[in-house]
Design brief:
Strand order of the largest sheet: 3-2-1-4-5-6
Structural class: alpha/beta
Helix content: 40-55%
Number of helices: 8
Shape: elongated
Order of helices and strands: EHHHHHEHEHEHEE
CATH superfamily of the largest domain: HAD superfamily/HAD-like
CATH class of the largest domain: Alpha Beta
Bound molecules: magnesium ion
Largest sheet: 6 strands, parallel
Strand content: 5-15%
Distance between the termini: 15 Å
Low-confidence stretches: none
Number of domains: 2
CATH architecture of the largest domain: 3-Layer(aba) Sandwich
CATH topology of the largest domain: Rossmann fold
């Protein structure tokens, strides 16, 4: 177990999807329904791996989020079927994709209580730092009922080291004064500890392939099982 020097920390930033509320299982379910609709038109090819290739190739220009996912679903359906997929099936695929914009963003058990405790303590500023599309992520924050518990909400196109530096600049702190809490070692933990900050890693049962990164031990990283566990260290 490592050392989080809480006296150093001024801001705690929280990832949103799959840290505060479920997201990936809705995507997995959408992809499963998509696979069933598309299968008759794919000449036996593997839908999941070709979809991932399309998503990855669209990433540099479209970024993360639901709209990019919907476009990738449609593009992959057209390509795999060699443009033979009926419009009525494409319409159903469109509906599967856009339904993700209605994610209820119900907080995981203990999230609301834990954030409220931290907020009321006045000890730290709380931020939500999440990748994705502006309106979709803002809507989820509002639907979650957690919006008022954040001093700052930052929706970003990526979570590279530079994005963390930009966040810290906006907040008026050094990276060594930031603690990031999240479910992705690649996006939420690795960049900030590389910059001298801190991370609390809360793995979720499902992980998007694109977010995979080999985990490693680090003095500034703590791994916990559930969200409320973070209070033990703060
Ligand atoms: Mg996440």
């Amino acid at each position: 177990m490592s050392n989080i020097v809480k006296e150093n920390i001024r801001v705690i930033a929280f990832d949103a999807d799959d840290t505060l509320w479920d997201n990936q299982s809705l995507y997995d379910e959408a992809e499963k329904n998509y696979g069933q609709l598309l299968a008759p038109y794919t000449f036996g090819q593997d839908i999941s791996s070709t979809l991932f290739k399309v998503e990855s190739s669209n990433m540099p220009l479209m970024g993360y989020g639901t709209k990019a996912f919907v476009i990738s679903l449609m593009q992959n359906a057209l390509e795999m079927s060699h443009d033979t997929i009926p419009a009525s099936v494409l319409h159903k695929i469109l509906n599967i994709g856009t339904s993700l914009l209605n994610n209820p963003a119900t907080p995981f058990p203990g999230v609301r209580e834990t954030l409220t405790t931290l907020y009321d303590s006045g000890r730290y500023k709380l931020a939500c730092f999440t990748k994705g599309e502006l309106l979709d992520q803002e809507n989820k924050c509002r639907r979650s009922g957690l919006y008022h518990l954040f001093h700052h909400i930052e929706i970003t196109s990526d979570k590279s080291e530079q994005d963390y530096i930009n966040l810290c600049t906006k907040l008026g702190i050094n990276p060594s004064e930031l603690l990031m809490v999240g479910n992705s070692f690649k996006s939420d933990i690795h960049p900030i500890v590389t910059l001298g900050g801190y991370g609390i890693y809360i793995p979720y049962k499902r992980m998007w392939q694109y977010e995979h990164l080999e985990e490693y031990e680090h003095d500034h990283v703590i791994q916990v099982q559930q969200f409320s566990d973070i209070l033990q260290y703060l």
